[in-house]
Amino acid sequence: MKRILLTLIIVLLSHGTIFAQDIFFNPTLNIEGVLKKDYQNATKGTPVVLQRIAKLKATPYNGNYETQAVIVANGVQLGIPISRLDIIDLHPDSNNAFWQIAQLSNGLISYYDKKGYQEIFRQEQAEEADEYLKELAQSQLLYEDAATEDYLQCLLLSIAPNQFINTHKDPVPQIRILKSPSPDALMLSNQCLLISTGLLTTLDTEEELCAILAREVAHNVLDHAIITTNKNIAHAKRAEFWGDVANGVVAATEEYLYQRYYNYEPGLVFATNDLIQTLVNEKIINRMGLDYSEKQEVEADEYAMKFMEFTGKNKEALISALTKIYSYYKDEHNAKALSKGDIYGTLEKRLEKNGRIHSTIRRQKLSENDLHRSQF
């Protein structure tokens, strides 16, 4: 009996697809789809199920392993190289599947194959985000309201995935509210989404808020912060960088408030544009990898709109929300926030490129042009 079993195992290993021991990728996906092209013995139009991502032997007799998508077609298990995954039209049936497909469709698996998952680096980034939140709390810049936080947390959890394509990333995000009139939202490396009171007052509908949250979730799902940080050339030493923040932010805040408000009491915070620029500045944004490229911003826009449509919401709510954010900064004459070096640097360009720039901006531009002509 033992000989029969041993012979059977040898035959299976010789002729079947061999799985490597790989615990990095999620063992279960089970996303349905349809082949867009013929693949091996499966023809175009064949229903398939994407089971998982794994390291498989490139060929049955090849000793090299490569990352492949494991699918089932016509009851047969096949391995498709990640580079050819686009031959499958995947159909998400849940929010979780939607974001997993987003990860699969943007070259993340190949990026991880090339760079590794960088666990130590990610842990350092998460610790830095923890330090950043600590400094905001000590500066009394976090708005504490249990009811509002619960509402936003439930909204965020209804959007974010509960399972990533890899097994290492914590899928449970948290939300904190920043005292600031500026309409800002930042997803930090510790899975904390920082949203400003200014954003809550700038937006008018829950759909607009959902769209902005979905944008930040998209940045997080697509690992934009880690990818961007890897591209950023200069990195201050961790202790030196956060020492500067710890020693400088509160001092700068207190000095500013003393100068501007004669009745200011130490420990209170009057959130202003100048103050928030002290705490959410270009140096910190760069350090955390939140200075996204235009391509990454466009990707986040696109996936937020796709998600809104997938969940039966108005995808144009994102454009409406971004237009209101843009209008806020224009009304405040905050050129720095709308410059290339800040988080909304590509906003106007993205709105115009999509042909969806709202009439409020067009009217504003016309008014500015009329004013400019009247000065000559």
Describe this structure in words.
By secondary structure, this protein is an alpha+beta fold. The chain is built from 15 helices and 9 strands. The C terminus is likely disordered.
Largest sheet: 5 strands, antiparallel
* Principal-axes shape call: globular
Which regions contain 5 or more consecutive residues with pLDDT less than 50?
A: 4-23, 260-275, 358-376
Fraction of residues in helices? 40-55%
CA gyration radius, whole angstroms: 25 Å
Number of helices: 15
**Could you tell me the mean pLDDT?**
76
Provide the spatial order of strands within the biggest beta sheet. Answer: 4-3-2-1-5
What is the succession of H and E elements?
A: HEEEEEHHHEHEEEHHHHHHHHHH
Keywords:
single chain, 376 residues, alpha+beta, five-stranded antiparallel sheet, four-stranded mixed sheet, 15 helices, 13% strand, globular, disordered C terminus
Secondary-structure blueprint of this entry?
Layout: H1 2-15, E1 31-35, E2 47-57, E3 65-73, E4 76-81, E5 88-90, H2 95-104, H3 108-115, H4 119-138, E6 142-143, H5 146-157, E7 174-178, E8 185-187, E9 192-196, H6 197-202, H7 206-221, H8 224-231, H9 238-260, H10 273-279, H11 282-287, H12 294-310, H13 316-331, H14 347-353, H15 359-374
Parallel strand pairs: 7-9
Antiparallel strand pairs: 1-2, 1-5, 2-3, 3-4, 6-7, 8-9
Helix pairs in contact: 4-9, 7-12, 7-13, 9-10
